[in-house]
């Protein structure tokens, strides 16, 4: 794994946090005794792949912030558990909004249960969060006041992102300028999610270096926005069909409206790699996304993550494979 001892240690600790969250979820995912056999619910087996480096690049990066800030281990492990609970909430909510089924909490439930499993996962994660925060406050890991604030802010910090998603539920009516998409819409849609890892430290670590925290937040935001740009390139077909905000589609709307019109008139499969048909728009977006990811990672490296520019570039290149952008490197480098 690239990135030095900070990322390796963060990955190890985050895996332990995830394992603890799954073990805590299990009691909430089992039916009461006497439930009819046809209506039994129980926790599903957690695949080993759920704890792999590839599936946890972002969570590891978030957790590494706690090491860079030299937060004591007990509170690092508290915040690391919260990271995974945030992930459960966000992924399950996205599944509901997008009619998808990206499993983050395995649950054995009768029927296809595509929707109900997401609902139960969110409800169970909320109960685990309450349990973890209460235990931490009672044992003195954090103060009672910090625990109370964590209970409220853990939801409140996600509301702007939820509000942005709400504006797209019925489809958008017009495509704003691509810079507005990046600097306003995507800051709420994705950039904010790359800063939620700071919620715990902002509340319970009053003695942290404010300037260092600010730099880390900016670096994580830049990296997250870069990832979202690559997401937009990959998802051109889906976002066109579902009428959702997309940096590349906004660029086309304001610079090549005739091209966008032609795309709308095609019978497009949402999984189609449409970016290969509009390289004049997709390639600059991909280059900008790659540059933002690299610059964000470089800033993190300089803030205690123990890697340099060359390693940051290599990590950014890995994201092309992680984000499933086949063929994009050829038109964007």
The string of secondary-structure elements, in order, is HEHHEHHHHHHHHHHHH
Distance, first to last CA:
24 Å
Mean pLDDT: 92
Largest sheet: 2 strands, antiparallel
- Please count the helical segments: 15
Q: What are the SSEs and their pairings?
A:
Layout: H1 4-25, E1 42-43, H2 57-68, H3 73-98, E2 107-108, H4 114-138, H5 144-156, H6 159-168, H7 178-189, H8 199-204, H9 210-234, H10 236-241, H11 247-255, H12 257-265, H13 279-305, H14 309-322, H15 328-332
Antiparallel strand pairs: 1-2
Helix pairs in contact: 1-2, 1-3, 2-3, 3-4, 4-5, 7-11, 9-13, 11-12, 13-14
What does this structure look like?
- By secondary structure, the chain is mainly alpha-helical.
- The protein contains 15 helices and 2 strands.
- The longest helix has 27 residues, at 279-305.
- The protein starts with a helix and ends with a helix.
- 38% of the residues are buried.
In short:
With 333 residues, the protein is mainly α. It has helices at 4-25, 57-68, 73-98, 114-138, 144-156, 159-168, 178-189, 199-204, 210-234, 236-241, 247-255, 257-265, 279-305, 309-322, 328-332; strands at 42-43, 107-108. Helix 1 packs across helix 2, helix 11 crosses helix 12 and helix 13 (279-305) crosses helix 14.
Fill in the keyword field for this structure.
15 helices, 333 residues, 2 strands, two-stranded antiparallel ribbon, mainly alpha
